[in-house]
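Example record

One chain of 242 residues, shown exactly as stored in the release files.
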Amino acid sequence: MKLYVVGFGCGSRDGMTIEAENTLKSSDLIIGYTVYVDILKKYFPEKNFLSTGMKMEKDRVKTALKCVESGKIVSLVCSGDSEVYGMAGLAFEMSVEFPTVEIKVVAGVTAALSGGAVLGAPLTHDFAVISLSDLLTPFDKIEKRLRLASQADFTIVLYNPSSRKRADYLKKACEIMLNFKAPETVCGYVSNIGREGQNSKILTLRELMGESIDMFTTVFVGNSETKAINGKMITPRGYANV
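Predicted structure tokens for this chain:
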């Protein structure tokens, strides 16, 4: 018996891998966060779905494991990739209580990659991915990661940059990064990647600090060599110097 933990990409059919699509087509039941299930219902209307809300991740995984035990082919879905801030880790942790269930992870395209493609090529060199959500991670640990990644001159991708309860977190992050990155550092962000209403912008780190963005936005902060070329955000790796 096998539980599939599927990353379905940014939410567009074109952004889904062939493996993810084939896995969902072969599933008896698709389980996920309500927002993700609503997206997938448009593409797989013939399938049975089960959804739960925010902060019900453990219930969602337990239900999926129980359904697999009962003989169903189940896909537990995540946006982007199923490992990157997804449910794959929790599924493995909880599967110890279900020894007959095997976990199969189906990779997807995470927002750092799909959003980066919209902006140009911001991730051609080393980069760090940091979530600003302090729901599961204390903000002092997030602050340390921002500080050290900035000091090491990584390009930084910020997930979960803001919410109604965390309206000033992006500003706080920018203030931390400005201790090590120049105010003119090239940055960018993409909202609703691959979905209706997609919007992107390239700006400086100083300008980014004053932007108002939401949870459906992914933010890219360049390194010291990142530049804007023809309206795109580019981080050279150094090939042009060879």
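Notes: The two ends are 52 Å apart (CA to CA).
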